Amino acid sequence: MVRKIEFSFRREQGSQRMNQRHHEADEPHSLVLRLGADDPLVLESGASLAPVQIAYQTYGTLNAERTNAILICHALTGDQHVANVHPVTGKAGWWISMVGPGKPIDTDRFFVICSNVIGGCMGSSGPASTNPETGEAFATGFPVLTISDMVRAQARLIDHLGIETLLAVVGGSMGGMQVLAWASLFPSRVFAAMPIASAAKHSAQNIAFHEVGRQAVMADPEWRRGRYQQEGARPVKGLAVARMAAHITYLSEPALQRKFGRKLQDREAPTFSFDADFQVESYLRHQGISFVERFDANSYLYLTRAMDYFDLAADNGGSLGAAFRNTRTRFCLVSFTSDWLFPTSDSRQIVHALNAAGASVSFVEIESDKGHDAFLLEEPNLFATTRGFLNAAATARGIPGGAA
Amino acid sequence: MSSEALRSDYRLVAEMVRPGTRVLDVGCGDGELLAFLAQHKQVDARGIEISREGVAACVAKGLAVIQGDADTDLADYPDDCFDYVILSQTIQATRNPKIVLEQMLRIGRNAIVSFPNFGHWRIRTHLMFKGAMPVTENLPDTWYNTPNIHFCTIRDFVALAEALQARIVRADALDAAGKPVGVKMPWWFWNLMGEQGIFWLARQGD
């Protein structure tokens, strides 16, 4: 009985959060840049998008010379709420350990910007946004995007903020792909670049995992060919399963073993049923359910697709080195030993290309058993590397302050 | 840091490097030499270091250093991309010193190598009278746990340079106190009195 009440409470709360999220898609709790119908964003697919809305957060103060701006690029299921309370979940920002006063990305010294990627669902134009022509959500009528499209939209925001050259662009995973695209598309606008746990192309294995996730979403009858919002449906099961599968890829075997092992969930013995007997099952179910409350199913399809299409070498005649030819940007790459989704070899490939291009590049592989998610967690070596790299870049650019 | 505070072998290496050039330090440790060269010689300083701690220390100093291995990662650099490639106190720890030196002379116009001289009289007497692999202040490891798997003498190194058809631009030997052994002395004297050798090599014809 108690369980049932808890469940319906959870459902109620979840439903409220989903309503709040639908609201965020058009009217976010963020700063918003609106580009008019006369100022379209031409996409890599050839489609053009107008009007465009970009939701963003900033932290710290832009200096008079406009030289201390750091752009943070968020990962697949992240958003612009880096270091403030999230308007939907009420939780702390996703990189609160990294960004803030005195933190490695020090908002006392730097002006930090993070925008929701286009295709996202937290206030930048995406499939959950209302199509002004129809008054309904775009759903699958939204054009398919690429990582470069996200970056070109961000460049419009940086123009709007009156910043010519960013001190640094920093991001992990899909955020790291954006960092690489920034450095390749706008080399003169990126003084320093820090792609973390990332790759210059999405691997076959990673595309395969994404396809599993998309198929789970689309197999949910409540997905309604993408028109769930119009039809008042909630494709929560498909998206939750997609998240469960993806979440496994963000961890590592040792981390799962350490955290859960074969421990049972609130019971002494197996129940000989398909209930969540094991703690790891219960944990994944929780991950799935809490994710659907804050994320849009169609957005998930679009953003995973954008990552799949990413191949920086292919965009440059097959040569990754050509993507960075004559670059003056200083790079710092980081990978984690137990990350099997974006393994160290992916980062090394970028390092080799940058060396071949004669670029200034640092690279460190950090020992961690936490898998791909390590970049979001308390990793003292990541913090030290980030702090050192950014402070050195700031000093090289003549920005006052900093210990060294 | 002033040049007096710098390790004596580093000081000699720093003397050999022309200002404003491109330098790769292979096995750069915590970046002491690179930082000195960047500050006092305005070089474009790059490094390779095998230990995570070393790389982290270098990045924190603002140096461009990648985690890597001299034996495997030099092959990834294009020809002629550095003016100097430095290998200090590391060649004896490489798996294939000849290939490492070859790669250094391929990617750089000049190679500067410093190494402990196994022909030093103290090491010779240690082996002669104790009959055991020498363990000294500068070489404190025992034979079974040392990372130094390819010791050589100054004479051996000269032979390797000749085998690679490299030109010896300059050679120095430092005694136990870090002072240069007399310049005018013959090779055999250096090989006996030098605790370490520092060689500046270039390609024939360059």
Descriptive keywords:
A: 404 residues, alpha/beta, Rossmann fold, eight-stranded mixed beta sheet, globular, disordered N terminus, B: 206 residues, seven-stranded mixed beta sheet, 8 helices, 23% strand
Structural class by helix and strand composition of chain A: alpha/beta
Residues in β-strands, percent of chain B: 15-25%
Secondary structure tally, helices of chain A: 11
The CATH class designation of the domain at 25-201 and 316-396 in chain A is: Alpha Beta
- Biggest sheet features of chain B: 7 strands, mixed
Overall structural class of chain B, as computed from helix and strand content, comes to: alpha/beta
How is the largest sheet of chain A built, in terms of strand order?
1-4-8-5-9-10-11-12
* Element-by-element helix/strand order of chain B: HEHEHEHEHEHHEHE
CATH superfamily of the domain at 25-201 and 316-396 in chain A: Alpha/Beta hydrolase fold, catalytic domain
User: Would you give the CATH topology of the domain at 25-201 and 316-396 in chain A?
Assistant: Rossmann fold
